[in-house]
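hiii so um. not sure if this is the right channel but i have a protein structure encoded as tokens and i wanna go backwards to a sequence. like what aa goes where. can anyone help
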């Protein structure tokens, strides 16, 4: 049951931003179904390859979560250009989670062509404070692929 379908036209954002170099960045339509009941859950014991979602934004966030749980996961090797470099840091003191879930609560386009994806997340670790609570993924589309250019947490 679809509760809502939100379409963001990045082309419109590009035009509204004024002059911008679009040769290195191909804008495309971004759509995510914001179903308040959809929770994406991952466990290090049963990470699977691929993505079942129709949304490239959701698939990119899922990839970030998989690489957060296990940076040595097979899909993470080819994702180093799509995710922030700190996702792949290897250090025992990071308190990397073994379980993480999230649901998307809001999408917010930015004037620079990026999209902020607000999530409500939960995990069993600490990992820079970026897996529990209100986590925002800042995403941008380059060469027809979504990239997470930053992540941060908000306290409400």
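sure thing!! here u go:
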């Amino acid at each position: 049951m679809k509760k809502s379908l939100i379409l963001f036209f990045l082309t419109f954002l590009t035009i509204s931003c004024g002059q911008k170099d679009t040769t290195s960045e191909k804008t495309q339509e971004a759509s995510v179904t914001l179903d308040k009941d959809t929770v994406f859950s991952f466990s290090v014991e049963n990470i699977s390859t691929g993505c079942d979602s129709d949304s490239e934004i959701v698939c990119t966030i899922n990839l970030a979560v998989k690489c957060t749980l296990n940076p040595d996961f097979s899909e993470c090797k080819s994702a180093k250009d799509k995710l922030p470099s700190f996702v792949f840091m290897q250090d025992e003191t990071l308190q990397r989670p073994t379980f993480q879930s999230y649901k998307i609560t809001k999408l917010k386009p930015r004037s620079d062509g990026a999209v902020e994806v607000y999530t409500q997340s939960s995990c069993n670790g600490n990992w820079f404070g970026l897996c529990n609570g209100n986590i925002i993924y800042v995403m941008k589309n380059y060469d027809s692929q979504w990239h997470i250019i930053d992540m941060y947490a908000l306290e409400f």
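oh and The longest strand covers residues 99-109.
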